[in-house]
Amino acid sequence: MFELLIFVATIVLLFVVLGKLPLEEEVVTKLVAEAKQHDDEEGGPKKENALTRADKYAGSGDYVKAEKIYLRLITKDPQDASLYNKLALVYLSKKAFADAKHALDQALQLEPDNDTFYNNQGLTAYSQGEYDEAVEAYEKSIEINNKVASRFMNLGLAYQMLKQNRKATDAYEKALILEPQNEEYKRLLLESEAKLK
Q1: Residue 131 to residues 4, 89, 106, 152, Cα–Cα distance (Å)
Q2: DSSP, res 131
Q3: Confidence label for 32 from pLDDT (cuts 50, 70 and 90)
Q4: Do 107 and 84 contact (CB within 8 A), yes or no?
Q5: CA-based nearest residue to 89, from 66, 69, 110
Q6: 138 vs 2, more confident
Q7: What angle (nearest 5°) sits at the alpha carbon of residue 87, between those of residues 83 and 92?
Q8: Is the pTM of this model over 0.85?
Q9: How confident is the model at residue 2, as a pLDDT?
Q10: Which residues make Cβ contacts (< 8 Å) with residue 142, sequence separation at least 6?
Q11: List of long-range contacts for 173-180, beta carbons under 8 Å, 24+ apart
Q12: Alpha carbon distance 40, 192 (integer Å)
């Protein structure tokens, strides 16, 4: 009998709770909307959301917004080397070369064997006309990972600017070995070979 009484009380309580659900659902919906608005204003509660937003801004050319979010994320996680790299790419796009170099130096302090960071360091140096430094950075990148054709192309371009056409030709040939159908690499190789004659 006692069990039946508990069962009936549970059913009654369930009906009372279910009867209140629409009101509670409205309150919950409102609170969720307010929290979402606050998160949007504050850059989101999770790193992934803010990072996605920053990447989207950077991809669309809104570098000011991307920079702000990357900097905010770095203050929250100063050991994340990829954030410094992303920030460097924003600076590189803005032609803020000194800032890009500084951000990449930070990234490489945290991950000294990251081939992508060295490649981006090479891009930064090349963009400033510092071709010897670009060659050095590209060579470090390739030393770590020699399976990316575009890095050999980058190396070839830097050698070409230094008038070292034999080394440029060798770099373009290596790029073509990795991507034999790439028309740009073929064109660069033909131009470089013509300068050897």
Answers
A1: 86, 19, 21, 14
A2: H
A3: very low
A4: yes
A5: 66
A6: 138
A7: 145
A8: no
A9: 42
A10: 115, 148, 151, 152, 155
A11: 174/146, 174/149, 175/149, 175/150, 176/149, 178/147, 178/148, 178/149, 178/152, 179/149
A12: 51
